């Protein structure tokens, strides 16, 4: 252990002449460097904290205000309307002027902040046609740029983002009835309409008043309930059902050395965390609003209680590594600085070379996090609340993140059928005991040098992990690199403490609980039918040339594929981001609409109006997506009304029915190239396959491919006819 390694630098012996103290210069040097690094971090955080706290103003503007006020005093002008004279009764003239100037400066900051918040509440720009900008939007852009001031840091816009508005009950119910119309026959729809109108007239007004009150008091009226009731109160397994995965680069593997690839990836993650902890990373932007960044790396574990809760930790200095049934603790810092990739490679190679056997119960221990939550919570209290088990569990849960040095070979191989399917399944659930599913994320390094991530969902949504993952892959390939032999670059400090095996004392009763959890998880994993469909016939560029949203194109292809597969339409979920609002997470876009079903039927009937129906359906979908992004969605409002009804003990048949409707088709998308660290045109092979959640069937994947080709054929036929007319 690092503590033991450093402790030997202080030795003393008791002699008849007194105490003979021996000090190690090397250890003292590292203690000194650790202190310097710690104080440097504090200084940078303090500086960036001030810059963020006074945003959109700057610290230098305070000096300008003070000088201006002092100048007016010497010119015998009193801009304070007598306030400075009142303060002068207690303080001197100079101090009175400085105090007044400071108060004026803070007032100006608040005014600028609320002005910016008001400006950011304007969302008409998002509904404008592509390529057309109205005068109001141009004026708005100019004002936002003017009031945004200097370049924002990571959290600069936190206090300037508007609150998520509560939609009106009339609008929500109208949009809900519109969304279920294509899924119900006339009799079913009429019944639903009666139930919805009864709710709107009788129960909704009271629930809405309390919800509006909550929106005034809370930062976001949805996020806390969404996190608690959707993620943390669930007692079913989070493996596959909640956790998601992210893939490595598809066509490129920078090195086939497992330890080296893990070393570069971990070092890149530490660098990413360092930038975030300093608050120096730029804010995430979504045309054109800078957005908040949720916790990454420093908020790892879910601790088991009833319900679970997310624990936020900072500056974790160690990592826990799993390999062939053993858990190892690896220190990430030495002498106040995080380890270099070559040093991390050496640490991981030591683990790979270790031939010791797992301790009793250690091999499948992580299966506790893959099974049902209640047995895990009880086992935690009974078997992991004292002694070696408590210390080892604490080491895992307080680590920066979890690393699995997998003993399997995975990755996309175009010559191997089903390689992408097996790769995704491995990332999604592995062997059910070789990922710690409670951690914010598990980094997975395979035997052939491929990487991947399994992420827990409660603390953040996929774009946040995607943002970090893009940084890691780009840094790994284009900034850190490898030697000709495939090792990490840099020298190695031979004085580093080696990895430490975590110790366990697991009784037979606990082993039975572990085995039960493993069997529950294995049933889920075996039930996963995954097919990864690589579509390279065309991309978003061609879709945009047709003046169509790529998202709408894909969603209509999904509807067509679903109808061809099942012969019917179903309630469809698509995730939309609400990050234009403070603490915003997601909203649902109901992709199955009357317009999309009309288009799908026309495609099957070979109707000549297919292209017109496609454009109508695409425009409808885009409008719904924009409404969801701007806080006018359906499902989060209905969800919060339902939670409020439970708190008030109000029984609502309408809300019960709405919340019990199953999503038969669930779709999500993760934005690519958020950072633009890699020029895809220059390096076309450096692309990834993104990630995903629980999958659909192989046949459905094939139907999607054909549906996309069929829709493209509509545009090809149109282009062909236009060319024939020109000739």
UniProtKB/TrEMBL annotation:
<keyword id="KW-0808">Transferase</keyword>
<dbReference type="InterPro" id="IPR000542">
    <property type="entry name" value="Carn_acyl_trans"/>
</dbReference>
<protein>
    <recommendedName>
        <fullName>Carnitine O-palmitoyltransferase 1, muscle isoform</fullName>
        <ecNumber>2.3.1.21</ecNumber>
    </recommendedName>
</protein>
<keyword id="KW-0812">Transmembrane</keyword>
<dbReference type="GO" id="GO:0005741">
    <property type="term" value="C:mitochondrial outer membrane"/>
</dbReference>
<dbReference type="GO" id="GO:0015909">
    <property type="term" value="P:long-chain fatty acid transport"/>
</dbReference>
<dbReference type="GO" id="GO:0004095">
    <property type="term" value="F:carnitine O-palmitoyltransferase activity"/>
</dbReference>
<dbReference type="InterPro" id="IPR032476">
    <property type="entry name" value="CPT_N"/>
</dbReference>
<feature type="transmembrane region" description="Helical">
    <location>
        <begin position="94"/>
        <end position="112"/>
    </location>
</feature>
<keyword id="KW-1133">Transmembrane helix</keyword>
<keyword id="KW-0472">Membrane</keyword>
<dbReference type="Pfam" id="PF16484">
    <property type="entry name" value="CPT_N"/>
</dbReference>
<keyword id="KW-0496">Mitochondrion</keyword>
<feature type="domain" description="Choline/carnitine acyltransferase">
    <location>
        <begin position="164"/>
        <end position="698"/>
    </location>
</feature>
<dbReference type="InterPro" id="IPR023213">
    <property type="entry name" value="CAT-like_dom_sf"/>
</dbReference>
<feature type="domain" description="Carnitine O-palmitoyltransferase N-terminal">
    <location>
        <begin position="1"/>
        <end position="47"/>
    </location>
</feature>
<dbReference type="GO" id="GO:0006635">
    <property type="term" value="P:fatty acid beta-oxidation"/>
</dbReference>
<comment type="function">
    <text>Catalyzes the transfer of the acyl group of long-chain fatty acid-CoA conjugates onto carnitine, an essential step for the mitochondrial uptake of long-chain fatty acids and their subsequent beta-oxidation in the mitochondrion.</text>
</comment>
<dbReference type="Pfam" id="PF00755">
    <property type="entry name" value="Carn_acyltransf"/>
</dbReference>
<dbReference type="InterPro" id="IPR042231">
    <property type="entry name" value="Cho/carn_acyl_trans_2"/>
</dbReference>
<feature type="transmembrane region" description="Helical">
    <location>
        <begin position="50"/>
        <end position="74"/>
    </location>
</feature>
<dbReference type="InterPro" id="IPR039551">
    <property type="entry name" value="Cho/carn_acyl_trans"/>
</dbReference>
<comment type="similarity">
    <text>Belongs to the carnitine/choline acetyltransferase family.</text>
</comment>
<comment type="pathway">
    <text>Lipid metabolism; fatty acid beta-oxidation.</text>
</comment>
<feature type="active site" description="Proton acceptor">
    <location>
        <position position="457"/>
    </location>
</feature>
<dbReference type="GO" id="GO:0009437">
    <property type="term" value="P:carnitine metabolic process"/>
</dbReference>
<keyword id="KW-0276">Fatty acid metabolism</keyword>
<keyword id="KW-0012">Acyltransferase</keyword>
<keyword id="KW-0443">Lipid metabolism</keyword>
<keyword id="KW-1000">Mitochondrion outer membrane</keyword>
<keyword id="KW-0813">Transport</keyword>
